[in-house]
Amino acid sequence: TMKNPVPQAASLLLEKLMLFIHVHIRRFLANSGGETTPPAPGDYDTSSLKRGDLLEVPRTLFIHFGIYLGENRVAHLMPDILPSFTDDLQQIQQVVTNKRLILGVIARTASVRVDTVEDFAYGGSILVNHMDRLFEDQVLASEESARRAEKLMGATAYSLLWNNCEHFVTYCRYGAPVSFQTDKFCETVKMIIRDQRSVLASVLVGLTSIVCLGLAPSTTLPTIFIPFFLWMAG
Prior knowledge:
The chain is of the alpha+beta class. The protein has two domains: about 55-180, endopeptidase fold (from Nostoc punctiforme) (Alpha-Beta Complex); about 195-234. It has nine helices and six strands; from the N terminus they run αβββααβαβαβαααα. The chain has a six-stranded antiparallel sheet with strand order 5-1-2-3-4-6. Helix 1 packs antiparallel against helix 3 (about 100-105). The longest helix is centred in the first third of the chain and has 28 residues, at about 5-30. The two termini are about 20 Å apart. The relative contact order is 0.16.
């Protein structure tokens, strides 16, 4: 029996929408000079950090996550196209540029890398173990968390919805890869589509998906979106 293609199409749509938002916000920040210049080494006080701590850096539209390894080092998963073309660790270890990040998102490639706290935070404020309250009895030993992160070092597949930096850290610290950012996004899209008063928003979601998916002009809207809307409303 064939698998139901509607959920697969829906997940692809959601991922393309997130990609659209992510890429264009990054481009806007880069073009407007709005990207924060990373601080100089020593601007962050790491004296209170312990090996295995989960670090969060809130951004405008998303949160970036990492696992502290000690000695001013943070393991984190970042989209990056470079590991697909070279094994030169010296090149790969350089700070990921916007171009590398965007191409990595598009190509669904990433790497679990180690950076300094300064490069990881990139000027943002850091929250420490802020997610522990959501996993009361599931927090692994600090050393176990750090070792899990170290074992995953290197190139990996990437997905904005199914394998991002939050999946990485929750697996390392709590034993299960989950992403509350993904869940929140999916629920928001479902609410927009279910709410009959949000017709305009639903149309915008559909039009955006056409742009992101690159569908042929001859493809009709009912063929694509009616099954999707029915699935989301179910």
